[in-house]
Amino acid sequence: MKIALVTHTSFPEFIGGRENHVHHLACGLSKIAQVTVFSGGRIKSEDLSRIHGYTLVRVPMSQIKVSSNPLQYYVLLPQLYRALHRERFELVHAFEYGSFSTDVACLFARRHRLPFILTVYGYQLNRPLGKAVKKIYDLGFGRVVLSY
41 has which bridge partners? Predict the structure, then answer.
């Protein structure tokens, strides 16, 4: 089985809770499946490496969430979508609701009729503009992601 895990930041470059969760999940799954982790990065070209039994593909894209700058969506979409399209995955698992990498993963899974899993991590927005943008996202594309 070929599994794609999609996150906007990854281990070992970042060592937060989500990054550790994705890393340990990929390590465990790599014992029974072919696992590729797709992550964003501020790099000039696609970077592929093997790490603890799985493949890490860092795609040049903005590490943005809906709460930071939704106008940069066009930067992320083609690069990550092309990287996902090169393989014949059987399952797509994305991390972080409201992340554009999750949106792209969902679009990819829908387009190719693949099972899609979303792990949601909590985050709070304290500024009024961030709350308003998130509410718009929740009522729009957020519904698409959560209904798949």
Answer: 60
What's the rounded mean pLDDT across residues 125-142? 81
Helices assigned H by DSSP within 2-127: 17-29, 73-85, 100-111
Q: How far apart are CA 121 and CA 108, in angstroms?
A: 21
Question: Residue 81: what are its φ and ψ, rounded to 5°?
Answer: -60, -45
What are the E-state strand segments in 8-65? 34-41, 47-51, 54-60
Tokens (6 digits) for 146: 């959560």
pLDDT value for 26:
96
Task: Report whether 94 contacts 118 (CB < 8 A).
Answer: yes
Phi first, then psi, for residue 99 (nearest 5°) are -90, 140
CA distance 119 to 74: 24
pTM of the model: 0.81
